[in-house]
Design brief:
Pathway: Carbohydrate degradation; glycolysis; D-glyceraldehyde 3-phosphate and glycerone phosphate from D-glucose: step 1/4. By secondary structure, this protein is an alpha/beta fold. It has helices at 12-23, 27-46, 105-109, 112-129, 178-188, 201-213, 244-248, 272-279, 288-293, 295-310, 325-328, 335-346, 369-386, 395-426, 454-458, 462-481, 493-506; strands at residues 55-56, 68-76, 80-89, 94-102, 141-147, 151-155, 158-161, 193-199, 218-222, 226-233, 251-255, 447-452, 482-486. The longest helix is centred in the last third of the chain and has 32 residues, at 395-426.
Amino acid sequence: MASTTAFSHHSPQAVYEQINAQFQLSNAQLVDLTRTFLQEFKLGLENYGHDMAMIPTFVTGVPNGTEKGTFLALDLGGTNLRVCEVILNGDKTFSLHQQKYKVTEALKTGEATALFDYLADSVDAFLTTEAASDTNTNSVIPLGLTFSFPVEQTALDSGKILTWTKGFSARNAIGNDVVRLLQDAFDRKQINVKCVALVNDTVGALLSRAYQCGGCILGAIFGTGTNGAYVEDVAKIKKIAGSAAASKGGYMVVNTEWGGFNNSRSHLPSTPTDNSLDRLSINPQYQAFEKFISGMYLGEIARGIITALIDSSPKPLLFSGQSTPVINKHYGIDTSFISAVESAWLGGDTRSDTIDLPFTELDNNAHSAGVKARLTAVRGTIVKDLGLKEDQVSLKDAAIIRWLCGLVARRAAHLSGVAVAAVLIQTGRAVPPGENHQELKDAAEKILVGVDGSLIENYPGFEAILRESLRYLVGKDAEGRVEIGMAKDGSGVGAALCALQALKQKS
C-alpha cells in the first residue's frame, strides 16, 4: 500500500480509489474488531495492567429519575475548574447552577496543598455567592469530584493520582488519594462539605442519562477523546475477587478506557496516514482506538490526505498544488472543519441532489443548480477555514474535500458502532452475527445509551452512520431497541449523581 504522505500517479482515479479502499471497513473487519473488543474486555476484567483497563468504579447502581436532593459537583480538568450545584427534582428533571474559576500556572505547578486549598476556597466562594439553595445550615453538603487525570480508583470515594497531564505538575500529589487531598483542604478551612464520590466523565454521562430517562446501561464519550462505561455483572469482574464489593455481588459500573483498544494495531485498519499521525503524536503506540475516532485527531487525519493530494506528482490533485499555513501546520485543521464541510454540503435543503465525486471529472455545466450551490457552500467553508482564496478552490476541489472528510468521519462512526456493539454483546443484550441465538437479557425492553461529546453532537448524521455498523453487528432487532440520547453534562450533573449514589450505597 503506497504511503499517503505523497502520491506518484498516472491516473488521478487510481489515487482516489486507493484512498477510498484504505478507509472503507468490510463487514468481516467489523466482526473481527468486535470479537477482539470482547477479548480485550475479558482480559481487562480478569487482571490489572491491560491497555483496555476495565476500571471498577465501585458504583453499584444507577438512578431512575425519582431521586431528589441537592448535591455539589467539582470538575477539575484543565485551565478552569467548575463548581456546580445540582438540584434533583425527582421527576427526571434537575436544575443546575454553576461557576467557573481560573486555575493559574502557579497553582498547576506549585505545591499540591496550594492547589487543593484553592479548590476548597472556590467551593466556599460558590456556596457564599452563587448557590441557589440555603447553605447556611449545619448539614454536611455532599460533593462529587470529576478529576480528569489518571487515577487508580480503589473505592467510590478514593483514588490514587498516577500522573499529571494537561500542563499540571503540582508537587507532592502523585501517589496520594485525590479525595483525601481535597477533603483535607475542606477540613483545614472548616468548610461544611464532604467529598463522597470520585467520578470519571464517562461514568457521569451514564448516570446523567439514567436520571433523565429512567435507566441506562452505557455511557459513551465521542468528542475530543472517546471512552465508554457500562453496567457489568460483578461476577465477571474477576480481578476484584475476594473484595467486599465482590462479596456483595450484583452489578457495578466499569470504566472501559476503550480509547486504548488494540494499541498493537493488529486489528485496527491502519493506513499510512494513521501510522504517521501516531508516530508524530505525544503518545505513540498508545490510545490507538482514540486516534481513529476522536475529535482530537480526525482533522489531522484529513490534513494528512489533503497535503498528500497537494504534493502529488506529476500533477497536484488538489488546489493546483497551493497550500496555506493552516494546511501546513501540524494539527492545523480542526475536526470542526470536517463537520462544517458536511453541514455546508447538506445545507437545509433536500438531499435528493447527489453526485459521484471525485471519481469523475466535475463539469460545471453538467450538474443541477442544487449541486452547484452545495459545492459552492463547501468552497466557502474551505476558503474561510483553510485560508485559501476563492479563485484557488475549484468546485472539483470542493467535491474532493467533501468526499475525503466524509471518508474519515464515516470510518470513525462505524468504529464507534463496534464499541457500542461490543457492550451489547458483553452484557447479553445481543449476539454477534453468525452465532446461534441465545436468550437475551431484557429482550423486550429498550436499551438506553447516554452519549456526550462534540463529535456526536455536531457532525451531521454521526449517530445514523454509527447505527449502520451496529445494525450489521447485532441485527436489526437489537439495534432497533437501542435508544441513544445526549447525556447532559456528565462531568457536572453526573458527578452530583455519583455523590447521590455514594450516599445510597452507604445507607
